[in-house]
Amino acid sequence: MAASTRQQKVAKLIQKEMSDIFLRDKRSLLGNAFISIADVKMSPDLSLAKIYISTLLAQDKQKLINTINDHKKEFRKLLGDRVGKQLRIVPEIAFFADDVEERAQRLDDIINNLHIPPAEPES
Predict the structure, then answer these.
(1) In this structure, are strands 34-42 and 92-97 parallel, antiparallel, or unpaired?
(2) Does residue 53 contact residue 68 with C-beta atoms inside 8 Å?
């Protein structure tokens, strides 16, 4: 089912604000890892935001996601301070690793390893 216009607007707002929070407010928590918010999916009632994170320069991506999830109350508080005037209720947040890069690499490997015999000449 496609997301409603309201869901898309709230997701875009949360994506922008969470990106800013990671960039400015929580740099010390992340170390030298570069975090980008790949996508935000909102529940139909806008009570839950699933935030998909893409990481670069992280030694252990899953450990970084776990660290971020351990501090999600702090992130939600910072998010609430930023969007409190625009949203009636600040949604619960959950962080997930974005695995688009890994899937793309796997597909490239499969395509590169295909053995396609040459076409037979037509008579």
Answers:
(1) unpaired
(2) yes
Q: Please list, in sequence order, all residues whose beta carbon lies within 8 angstroms of the beta carbon of residue 65, skipping any fewer than 6 positions away.
A: 53, 55, 95, 96, 97
Note down pLDDT in tens along the chain; length 123 residues.
Answer: 567 899 999 999 999 999 988 888 766 677 777 788 889 999 999 999 999 988 876 677 888 888 888 888 998 999 999 988 888 889 999 998 887 777 777 888 888 888 777 888 776
pTM of the model: 0.76
DSSP line for 46-86: S-EEEEEEEEES-S-HHHHHHHHHHTHHHHHHHHHHHHTTT
- What ranges do the domains of the chain cover? 5-112
Q: Is CATH 3.30.300.20 the classification given to domain 5-112?
A: yes
